[in-house]
Design goal:
Layout lengths: L8 E5 H18 L2 E6 L2 E6 L2 H10 L2 H16 L6 H21 L1
Parallel strand pairs: 1-2
Antiparallel strand pairs: 2-3
Amino acid sequence: MRRQKKRPVRRLSISKLRSQISNIVERVNKNREYIVIEKNGEPVAGVVGLDELDDILEVRDEKLNVQIAEGWVEYKRGELKKTGQQFLDELRTELHGERRKRKAA
């Protein structure tokens, strides 16, 4: 399994965010950084790239959660017909296609 590289997390006040918004968007997009926005020193929001947001929203998809639960039951019963890598490759291909459809819409 591929090991994901740690992504930098940067904390910014709302006032700094306002003055650097163009730079921040570019860094999030190019460097895949995470930005935590603070108000009065307290974290209140976050900025992530669009692909990351898509991943977050997909996890909230009820249909996807049902498929995950069903797959887990099959796994526990030993009914899987694919290797973990084959499954992940198919899932990535399918999700990539879904993202392209959404971007085209």
